[in-house]
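Quick one, tokens below:
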């Protein structure tokens, strides 16, 4: 159902967290019929204006989680509210207020950067599209290759274009899957600084999946640690360092990734108690 939320629901929504997921689960079918549980009943609350890191090893369930938050994948079970709006019922009311970028989603190769951004700007229903594209190109240092086909850009240039696409509608909620994957340290630092400034300027909420622990320590107020589809720990980076008695988030990550399964279950108990 995609009916419009009521006035009372909209007023309550304004007070709600940026993301609230409850019991969110995704099971994929597999050819052997056993299926794989990519995301296993996770419950997450992300406050407005925060930057939250979604961490976990390969296959932990980060991309699947982000896809469900975006409404790109239907959950097998559980609920998602974005900016107080129930994604299952009123997804179209909130989609214009959010956006995402992912290295796994390529823009059409043959279109130029300008054409791609223009198409997306129209899809998002923006007015003054020409000026918006021009302004973003300047902010993200894209002007030199605005008229080149998107497929011919380097990985770093593509990442900046993907970020421009994600910022076209000035999203209140930005979901980023590995925003600095395969970037050189200079470009990665540039993107992080840009994101910090965007958050400060707009008060937007950012959820980012990352394998770069220094990035997470620098950008994130809070961290969600995933393993085998579950949230096994969470907290501010400083709180996690203290809890594990470690100096760096990378060490904490390794502790969690290498812990025996009974530690995972302990994390689940903490999750349920939240
Ligand atoms: N369409 C699909 N069909 C079957 N299994 C899937 C599908 N998509 C994801 N999976 C499985 O779900 C699990 C979680 O995958 P996901 O891509 O969410 O992990 P991830 O944490 O983003 O990993 P990475 O860090 O490697 O990108 C993995 O076991 C993966 O093989």
């Amino acid at each position: 159902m995609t009916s419009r939320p009521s006035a009372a629901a909209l007023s309550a929504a304004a007070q709600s967290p940026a993301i609230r997921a409850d019991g969110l689960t995704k099971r994929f079918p597999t050819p052997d019929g056993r299926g794989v549980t990519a995301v296993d009943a996770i419950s997450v609350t992300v406050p407005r204006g925060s930057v939250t890191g979604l961490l976990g090893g390969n296959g932990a369930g980060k991309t699947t989680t982000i896809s469900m938050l975006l409404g790109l994948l239907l959950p097998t079970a559980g609920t998602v509210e974005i900016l107080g709006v129930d994604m299952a019922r009123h997804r179209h009311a909130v989609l214009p207020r959010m956006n995402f970028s992912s290295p796994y989603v390529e823009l059409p190769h043959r279109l130029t950067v300008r054409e791609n951004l223009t198409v997306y700007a129209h899809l998002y229903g923006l007015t003054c599209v020409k000026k918006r594209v021009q302004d973003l190109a300047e902010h993200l240092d894209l002007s030199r290759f605005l008229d080149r086909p998107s497929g011919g850009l380097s990985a770093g240039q593509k990442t900046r274009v993907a970020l421009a696409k994600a910022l076209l509608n000035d999203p209140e909620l930005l979901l980023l899957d590995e925003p600095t994957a395969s970037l050189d340290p200079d470009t990665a630092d540039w993107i992080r600084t840009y994101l910090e400034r965007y958050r400060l300027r707009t008060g937007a909420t950012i959820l980012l999946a990352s394998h770069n622990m220094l990035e997470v320590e620098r950008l994130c107020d809070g961290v969600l640690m995933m393993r085998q589809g579950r949230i096994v720990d969470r907290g501010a980076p400083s709180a996690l360092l203290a809890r594990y008695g470690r100096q760096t988030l990378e060490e904490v990550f390794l502790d969690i990734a290498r812990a025996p399964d009974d530690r995972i279950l302990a994390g689940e108990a903490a999750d349920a108690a939240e």
